[in-house]
Structures are given as C-alpha cells and as structure tokens.
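Good morning,

Attaching, inline, the backbone tokens for the sequence recovery test we're adding to the shared suite. The designed sequence is right after.
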C-alpha cells in the first residue's frame, strides 16, 4: 500500500519550485493533493502532473495572505475530499534590501505571505485536524531564519517567526495528536535563488560543506518524511536541509 494512501494533503506555493516538487512527491506517495498558489495556470499544471503520478489532485488559485480566500479554499477541499491530514505551508517570497533602505511595503509583503500566510493556514486547517485527532503540519522556514542573512532582515525575521510559530503550535496541538515541524532549507535551485548574482553564488558555495546547492526534490523528500507515519514521534523539530550550511 502506498505510504500516504487515503491521506489528504494541502501544499501552498505549489505552482513551482519546492512546493511543486513537494506536491508531486506527496501525490506519488498516494496522497490526494490540493495544490495552491496565485498563478492559476501553473498550479493547474502541477495538479495535472500530480494526477499522472496516479493520485487525485485539485488546483486552487489563492493568495495565502488573504484569510477569507484561504478559508473558502480549505472548506472546498474538505467538502470534496472529506478530511485533511497534511498541511505544507510553503508559499514564500523575498523582497531583499539593506535595512536602512528597506521600505515598510517590502517588510509587510514578506511578513504577510511568509509568516501570516502560515499562521492563517494553521489556524484554518487545525480545526479539521483537531476533530480528526490527527494531522501533520510542515512549515517551510529557511537557513536565513536560523543564522540571519545580510540584505534579508525581513525574510530572516519571517522565517525565524516560522520557527517560533512551529514550536508553539507543536506544543499546543500535541495533545490533539497533531505533529508540527519545520524544514529549514539552505540554498535550493529554484526561481527564488536564480535571482542571485553569479558572484554571490561563488562566495556562497565554499560555505556549504556538501559543496553544492540543493534540489527542490531533496526538500520534498524531507517533507514526505515529516508527512508520513515514519515521523510520528517527532514534533516541534526544525530539520535542516542545507548541505551542512548552518552547522
Ligand atoms: P519559488 O520558486 O519562488 O516559489 C514560491 C512559491 O510560493 C510559488 O509557487 C508562488 O506561487 C508561491 N507564492 C508566493 N506568494 C504567494 C501567495 N501570496 N499566495 C500563494 N502562493 C504564493 O520559491 P521556492 O524556492 O520554491 O521557495 C519555496 C519556499 O521555500 C519558500 O517559503 C521559501 O522561502 C523557502 N526557501 C527557499 C529556499 C531556496 O533556496 N530556494 C531556501 C530556504 C527556504 P505564485 O507566484 O503562483 O503565487
């Protein structure tokens, strides 16, 4: 029987990058997977590819920073699939700038998507998980939230916030049979890191003990572990998938 047979998963930011590969990995493991993002066409493509992996998959256009939009989508998923077992809060953006130049708008946009979006996801989905007395929530943080990064004070603060959110909610929801964990990826090859200048990449590489950037599939496999029964005794953990960068 597939690892996640009859489980229902929601993945935010599933139109590309880590979220897309995560949705495909969950579908391949047998989960019915709801793929969420703002780009309708791309998120439909993810769901289409997920269906080819054999699973049932749904696509939703949604902005995770809008509570009512997200709530309506989750209600629809529950109505169609009848339960919610896995939530992956992956949607994220960067708006990099040095602190003295950073605008309030750049600060707010990053906080609204990365941190408030995850809060909304947990607040909405945990209602269903509490009723089921089971569930797995996986929040995508970042190495930047652990060790900081020049020019990313907004992003690093949002990701450090994700870690505090993860640990607090893990404590709150443990008695309800729900595990809440975070993953802190290092530098992963996606659209987000393709914006980095070549010289930045060259200075970063020697700092990564494993000597390379990671692949989105390598993060997806860590999500799969935290979404599966193999991790049933793990909660409030931050799993580093970073080639050793933060050690
Ligand atoms: P990406 O390729 O830029 O993808 C970001 C995803 O988030 C897209 O699917 C995007 O879809 C979605 N998204 C952004 N804002 C959204 C919103 N308001 N509502 C719904 N969806 C939204 O980035 P990635 O590298 O895969 O990053 C995924 C996650 O991993 C992020 O949380 C990121 O911070 C984290 N991370 C990445 C790295 C890395 O090196 N790549 C390292 C550490 C952590 P739409 O544009 O279609 O909405």
């Amino acid at each position: 029987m597939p690892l996640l047979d009859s489980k229902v998963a929601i993945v935010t930011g599933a139109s590309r990058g880590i979220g897309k590969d995560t949705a495909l990995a969950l579908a391949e493991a047998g989960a019915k997977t709801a793929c969420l993002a703002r780009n309708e066409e791309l998120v439909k493509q993810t769901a289409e590819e997920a269906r080819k992996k054999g699973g049932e998959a749904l696509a939703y256009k949604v902005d995770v920073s809008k509570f009512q939009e997200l709530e309506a989508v989750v209600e629809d998923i529950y109505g169609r699939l009848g339960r919610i077992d896995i939530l992956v809060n992956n949607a994220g953006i960067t708006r990099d700038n040095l602190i003295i130049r950073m605008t309030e708008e750049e600060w707010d946009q990053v906080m609204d998507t990365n941190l408030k979006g995850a809060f909304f996801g947990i607040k909405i989905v945990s209602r269903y998980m509490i009723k089921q007395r089971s569930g797995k929530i996986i929040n995508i943080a970042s190495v930047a939230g652990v060790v900081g990064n020049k020019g990313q004070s907004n992003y690093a603060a949002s990701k450090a916030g994700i870690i505090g959110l993860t640990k607090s909610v893990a404590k709150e929801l443990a008695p309800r049979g729900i595990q809440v964990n975070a993953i802190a990826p290092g530098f992963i090859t996606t659209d987000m890191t393709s914006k980095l200048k070549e010289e930045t990449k060259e200075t970063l590489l020697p700092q990564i003990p494993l000597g390379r950037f990671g692949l989105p599939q390598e993060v997806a496999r860590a999500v799969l572990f935290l979404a599966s029964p193999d991790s049933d005794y793990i909660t409030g953990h931050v799993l580093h998938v970073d080639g050793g960068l933060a050690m």
